[in-house]
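Lecture notes, structural biology module. Today: joint structure prediction for complexes of two components.
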Amino acid sequence: MTDTDAAALSDQDAVLIDRYWRAANYLSVGQIYLLDNPLLKEPLAAEHIKPRLLGHWGTTPGLNFIYAHLNRVIRQRATDVLYICGPGHGGPGMVANTWLEGTYSEIYPLIGDDEDGIRRLFRQFSFPGGIPSHAAPETPGSIHEGGELGYALVHAYGAAFDNPDLVVACVIGDGEAETGPLAASWHGNSFLDPVHDGAVLPILHLNGYKIANPTIMGRMDDTALRQLFEGFGYEPFFVEGRDPLPMHRVMATTLDRCFDRIASIQQAARAGEPAGKPRWPLIVLRSPKGWTGPREVDGKKVEGFWRAHQVPIAEARENEAHRVLLEEWMRGYKLDELFDIDGRLLPELRALVPRGDKRMGATPYANGGRLRRALKRPDWHRFAVDVPCPGGAIAESTRSAGEYLAEVLRLNEEARNFRVMGPDETNSNRLNAVFDVTNRAWMEPIEPYDDHLAPGGRVMEVLSEHLCQGWLEGYTLTGRHGLFNCYEAFVHIVDSMFNQHAKWLKVSRELDWRAAVPSFNYLLSSHVWRQDHNGFSHQDPGFIDHVVNKKADVVRVYLPPDANTLLRTIDHCLGTHNRINVIVAGKQPAPQWLTSQQAEIHCAAGIGIWEWAGTDSDGAEPDVVMACAGDVPTLETIAAVDLLRQHVPELKIRVVNVVDLMTLQPHEEHPHGLTDADFDALFTRSKPVIFAFHGYPWLIHRLTYRRTNHHNIHVRGFKEEGTTTTPFDMVVMNDLDRFHLAMDVIARVPGLTGTASHAKQAFRDKLIEHKLYVCRKGQDMPEIRDWTWPYQTAAEAGD
Amino acid sequence: MTDTDAAALSDQDAVLIDRYWRAANYLSVGQIYLLDNPLLKEPLAAEHIKPRLLGHWGTTPGLNFIYAHLNRVIRQRATDVLYICGPGHGGPGMVANTWLEGTYSEIYPLIGDDEDGIRRLFRQFSFPGGIPSHAAPETPGSIHEGGELGYALVHAYGAAFDNPDLVVACVIGDGEAETGPLAASWHGNSFLDPVHDGAVLPILHLNGYKIANPTIMGRMDDTALRQLFEGFGYEPFFVEGRDPLPMHRVMATTLDRCFDRIASIQQAARAGEPAGKPRWPLIVLRSPKGWTGPREVDGKKVEGFWRAHQVPIAEARENEAHRVLLEEWMRGYKLDELFDIDGRLLPELRALVPRGDKRMGATPYANGGRLRRALKRPDWHRFAVDVPCPGGAIAESTRSAGEYLAEVLRLNEEARNFRVMGPDETNSNRLNAVFDVTNRAWMEPIEPYDDHLAPGGRVMEVLSEHLCQGWLEGYTLTGRHGLFNCYEAFVHIVDSMFNQHAKWLKVSRELDWRAAVPSFNYLLSSHVWRQDHNGFSHQDPGFIDHVVNKKADVVRVYLPPDANTLLRTIDHCLGTHNRINVIVAGKQPAPQWLTSQQAEIHCAAGIGIWEWAGTDSDGAEPDVVMACAGDVPTLETIAAVDLLRQHVPELKIRVVNVVDLMTLQPHEEHPHGLTDADFDALFTRSKPVIFAFHGYPWLIHRLTYRRTNHHNIHVRGFKEEGTTTTPFDMVVMNDLDRFHLAMDVIARVPGLTGTASHAKQAFRDKLIEHKLYVCRKGQDMPEIRDWTWPYQTAAEAGD
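The predicted structure, tokenised, for the full assembly:
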């Protein structure tokens, strides 16, 4: 560091910023400990201290330090900065800083900017009826919770895409750095385009410890860290120490350098200079855990050790010696240099804070609904498959969807507010029409023979479901739109991220000041029934079970049976907000059932009788209801009706198709749920129902167990039987095929004649014949015969 | 590379190894394409070619290359090597090599070592009734499937722990390297002890492409890769090229160097030289995707590009020009230099293969049940909590479990076949007694003030659920035992890994030759009801919903209500094999119900009537059944009975407690399921059942919907309501508290007198009183009063 560099901060400014930092630290400690006496105007007494001490001190002073220094940069450069607080447990720091800058009191007027406000601020923290101990939806300036660790950097990149004027300062704890998703996130720089995207400034905060252990990176030396991050393509800067004033000077200088680097990278790229992947700056900040807190308590090391992780001084209410230590600690921040007699931040410190929406707690980037612009959507009917009669066309559902998505990309090209994410499966899922309009985002070298790779491409492909999910979360939480296409089985990789996002949305919806953000849309293809070629490890329809555990307000599950219903469903989902929409649809050539007009009506209802498919056209109550949800179950149901029509012509069959799974739930439990009267009108009150379902059968029972006719509902679905086999054999293995379904009908409809039992025998014979074709391992394999229409057996590349 | 180095392989040996490699490549192509004419004795005709072409060629020649070279090293050094095939899609390679070395035919005698065997080998691949296209349980020598990518390296480390004589050669594709779990796995070297553990040799196979995209690492230059892996603490070696003979020489030399490095690291460490974290070798192998395959097809680049990923020449059955190309390609391997006229591998090539169990397809490390030694378990009653009467003691359940686990560690110290994994939560989950016996494994620098860190420690703590899960999978699949303790909410992070492991076990159980491996045991603590302090993001009981989707043979879920039942459950689970056991138990001080004798009886049954808790001691049928599963629901149920006993004394209540959740399922669906008669005897055929459940309520409905009395079962559980509040408020928010339960009873039992409605009003008043204590955000916060016995409100560090 040269003298010139050090000039980033005058001595006077260093002292000022230190005072601001002390104020933030004081307010952080106060939140953890105090019920009352917020400015220590009286000696600290037991009754001033919370009976239950909660919160995470260890990471907080470092978070406050970074926040204070970013404030300076923002004021000087008028930059928009979004602060991602990876160590979300450092909630007290985010709350303290947003209070200091005034946003907290603006959003929550009861928490004023004076002594009474401070008292309430302290009291509410991690308190019944109060606020969580993490950065949470309730926290101004946050799009990131951080209770479950791993997603800070991927959220940061998601926020930076297509926000060219934004710098996302992303603090990553060294605990979080050990997680898989975070470890993969460093590669975000291979996708970030300096022309159209903003910048991410990762700040790896090494305070050395997790809850009860040192961290791996905390114990790595600077040489190793430098190698590692240079290997990842960054330019690392180190800020290390414990003594506040020198640390302020180094941090200010370093931030200036980093922001200069960012500016020069962007200027060069935007001026059209050939860049390749820029070497973006990254800061490694080594500071003691629990910095400025007690060095020792009861003779045990605290500052700079894991004992500082949460509450460094325990039992401060009960233990007088501890209380004295706490009071010394808090008074050590020198309150008279921070607040006036009324508890207001002193004017010279308030002057350190940016103004208006430039404040990190107030930035609209952290309340993305404020920036949301409706997506332009074409008329989906333009992409509809022509269906002259039910079953009269064969099409790949997702291929039409790809054409529709290409048009969405085209219409919103200028707005740059729509992206498609996928783990290298966009082609495989047959959405390749999007490449007529855009490219895959790519900042690594590009070879002449490469296919649709370019900086600024709007399709993001990386072999990590975690990155796809996290990027799209960051992208939608900052107000933009998108779709994540994924193999159905492997979307379980992000179960936990889905959980956290659903929880975030649930709480956000309860906060008036949070504007609605675009929905998170999943398109799950390459689903369980058509992973016959990849085998058992690729066969799992359980994500929707996981999804429906979440709050009804937030989640939607759709199972469109063909191309036109898929188009209508995607179009609908892209117009919604504050939700998580899950669409499951096949990509293989399959029969088409509904015209676009029929699809419109059917999808609007979400469920309905397919009169053309059944045999009860006279309007009387049927003998049996055959229900289906999902493309393959729908096909098998219709084939089963066909068999029954031939073999047991007297049978009156009603076919009910379900697109919107939530219609099955009670109306009181889900806004899309049918009333009991409507449900009974479809499923009857007493007739057998044979339900062919895409997923695990018990999900249907779970959704319908309160319905009148539930005891008559007999569900076939995936029962965890699968291997590498034919598509038809997949349904046979799980008793979901046309013959099993037809036999189920015959078994459950009372009073059928002898023709029915003959038919049953004929179906059983068909199944035996089928089994003969699928021989056991090691024996001779026969040819596959072509009686499994309409399943295609030709493999296509890229599955 | 110097001349001396090159001498690892004579010219003659290079040619021999090349011929062996060609044989493996030929057999790989044959599996993808051929139905018949396996040795091309006739010109290739359409009918010789499979009608559906499946399989992944791109990665396979590289996998074969590595396999062939490892064979040489094994023969020369008599080392045990386990081959982890990260690109599991390269199944044809693993199958080809294990056939060449003879293990395939030994395990599957129908697939002989001659022409007919080759024909069957080809035919069965990715064929109905045949074998999957990935390395799978069916594949000899594999403990790793690799359909879902990300877990190769973490499995490798898990296999290497406590196997000091083993080298795990772990091939990592550059696609897989983009995943989060893989990215975090590089840090395994911070935990691997050269004294007691074996070695992991990562082989990063850069063939440059995924399905339809280049890979990030494939486009990084050697300088960046070297920096990256040196940063991670490895010593990288590069093997790069396309020309086979020079590549054989470099690979041989490099492998010799790596094995030399491994030997010298281990010798030094085992001789007691102070080591620190060794710099283990790592190989970066750059070879073309689809190496030795067609360079172009239809004028489009194939070799060295993503078009080689799966089937490089499509429609070879239908398209004659393609068929000619295929035949040229296959004949290019020069069959007469590989096989004799009968299709047997030529003797000079067979001589290149190791013998007996040294063959990688035959190594017992890949069939871990063969190495399984029963875990020594102490008498768990020794650790039992003294319970003078139900509710007569307060204890932390997991603390006793920790004492039991410490003794397990002690008893098996010499065998070194038991480990405890956890994401930095072993203390937090109150299992800290284990540190009386062992340490945390740690190879990074250790400071004097550190707490129980040491190389060779038997507790593995890293802030990554993925690593904990993957290490324990690798550890148990190689025949050793363990337990993974985790926060309940965050175990969803490994949902997908659980899935894949459950699928692996399901298929393995069907294979006679696979010996049973120890079960995978989860202990989920810090559960939903006691995350009142950490808030909503930490509250999720849905993992068990996910688990019960898997095959009944494989999964078990236990909800022990107190310390003694937890002890008995853990002890039982540690004695099982081929299963996944999930135990959910609290860590907070809580009332104890059963003596160790009672716990033994109760857990053996898995479910039972707690006569002492109910009011129907006269043996008659009760008015109502109050069922409970989980520690907090059990407490609330008992408190509710207490209230009802006081307020509605005439009510006959039966209390049923469920430890083993699987007892609720029909007997036909799960081996632990009660018969309907037994279920009816417990739950009655017609009385109301108020079921207080630990998880989402619909799981109970799902498990019981076929039972006689299902329509009377009314379940309370977590309905996704939570925040930072008191423990008691958590149950109130979800209607699971004593007052709601008591009101439920009154509402559902017909014919109650006026005292009951008075009681209901009293309970409602209590809830209103409670709500007054938990005020809404921003308003004044009251003190917490101490009327929510016996929930403790004192926070302890480390939660």
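Point to remember: The CA atoms of residues 520 and 580 of chain A lie 5 Å apart.
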